[in-house]
Design goal:
MCP/YpsA-like, Rossmann fold, 3 domains
């Protein structure tokens, strides 16, 4: 469909430099990024996780910036029909479309090429995350301690998906807000359940926050329930946004992306400076997922130790209990932040080292050079395992990384005998349980080998 659309108070005017950057299709231009992210939100609700397949299906799609006397408009050509009803763009889709424009313009204008922020310094990276979230109006001073981050896979079974809705419903009944990675599966289910809980409690301003980044948005199109979409510039800033904004975290079954998120959080919480900084963490799923969490638990205990396992609680097939644990945890978080005079809207006191903040680009060299040995301190081993899982996610869904694997073969992950055996076993389970991808038969983009480090 060909159409022109105007924003609803999201980003009504642009400078000439911003417009030129958005139109530029050459190196350094923002047009390819804008087109990719815009197509993702226009296919909200799509059930494919193959970014290349999506881009090929709409290869004629084009987006143009129009400047008018009354502000900026977007001209779309070949836009997906699913974004419209009776020839009019769905209102929520239009909001997400201009959220894309807002975040791309903001990061490029405020941070790219600027000397205001030193990207080699940890505190500056945290401030970048804060500024992006504040610009998107996600961090607000007069909010309660009530944001529950829900992590989990997009390639989950129907039974697991229904369970995520049940947990979301119980959280909604308790007036809690939901933040996820914005895609389908375990990212959509909690939001869908919470809408019913909020409706019963007459919560008129329910928040369904979706945090994503350009590398995965085409493979995990935002689900239609998201009403606060933020596109962070890379995966590491996205992960930091989750733990800074969220007050408690619930993890549902998933694959390597979910394992990456768990290891990211555990690696941070294991740092001595974060002792006593409460971040309630619950791992949960239906009865059929008990073995999945048993294997995750065994892997964590064997690699990071009992201290890491003490940071979370596993609950099987009990949505009410999950919600009660979360509510009790939120009460502790609020008491601690009131005592310390800390902000409710952003966890400034959480110490995050640069190891967890620097973007990791998956290549055959970077993956093979990861130190996966139990000789490392637990929080640093968690950082490297997180990178390994991040690289596999990239090899599964990012077009450029998929092409790299197709051209040069699978990545090699080299670990000490003990860690390599544990990692290989866990990854084989993910493959066998079809937790890697929705689309097509899965061919592993990795192999694990024992290597004397």
């Amino acid at each position: 469909m060909d159409i022109e659309v105007a924003p609803e108070g999201s980003l009504e005017v642009l400078s000439q430099l911003e417009v030129n950057a958005l139109r530029n299709q050459g190196e350094g231009g923002l047009y390819p990024l804008l087109r990719r992210c815009a197509l993702a939100v226009l296919t909200s609700g799509s059930m494919t996780d193959d970014a290349g397949e999506l881009l090929r299906a709409y290869e004629d799609f084009d987006i143009t910036i129009l400047e008018t006397d009354r502000g900026v408009r977007l001209a779309l050509q070949g836009a997906p029909e699913m974004a419209f009803v009776d020839g009019q763009m769905i209102r929520g889709t239009r909001e997400l479309l201009f959220a894309v424009l807002r975040d791309i313009v903001f990061f490029h204008t405020e941070f790219a090429g600027t000397e205001r922020f030193d990207f080699s310094k940890s505190e500056h990276l945290t401030n970048v995350v804060f500024h992006v979230l504040r610009h998107a109006d996600v961090v607000q001073a007069r909010r309660n301690v009530d944001v529950v981050v829900c992590w989990g896979g997009h390639a989950i079974s129907r039974n697991e998906y229904d369970y995520t809705k049940q947990v979301g419903y119980e959280l909604g009944l308790r007036h809690l807000q939901i933040c996820t990675g914005c895609g389908p599966g375990a990212m959509k289910g909690p939001m869908k359940g919470a809408t019913i809980g909020h409706s019963k409690q007459r919560v008129r301003d329910g928040r369904y926050i979706g945090l994503t980044e350009p590398g995965i948005i085409a493979a995990e199109s935002p689900n239609p329930i998201v009403n606060e979409l933020v596109i962070l510039p890379d995966m590491e800033k996205r992960l930091e946004a989750f733990v800074r904004v969220g007050h408690a975290i619930v993890v549902f079954p998933g694959g390597v992306g979910t394992a990456e998120e768990i290891l990211y959080l555990l690696g941070i919480l294991l740092h001595p400076e974060n002792a006593g900084n409460p971040v309630p963490l619950v791992l949960t799923g239906p009865a059929g997922s008990a073995d999945y969490f048993a294997k995750i638990d065994r892997f964590i205990k064997a690699t990071l130790g009992a201290s890491a396992a003490s940071l979370y609680e596993i609950v099987v097939d009990d949505p009410v209990r999950v919600a009660q644990i979360v509510q009790d945890g939120l009460d502790r978080v609020e008491m601690r932040r009131r005592r310390d005079g800390d902000a409710f809207y952003f966890n400034w006191r959480l110490h995050i080292e640069a190891e967890f903040q620097r973007p990791f680009v998956a290549t055959h060299e970077s993956m093979a050079s990861l130190n996966l040995s139990e000789d490392l301190p637990p929080h640093l081993l968690a950082a490297n395992l997180r990178r390994a899982f991040s690289g596999i996610v990239s090899g599964n869904i990012r077009e450029e990384t998929v092409a790299m694997v197709e051209a040069h073969g699978p990545f090699e992950l080299r670990g000490s005998p003990r860690v390599a055996e544990l990692l290989d076993e866990l990854l084989r389970d993910f493959v066998a349980q079809r937790r890697m991808k929705i689309s097509s038969d899965y061919r592993p983009c990795f192999r694990v080998i024992t290597h004397p480090l």
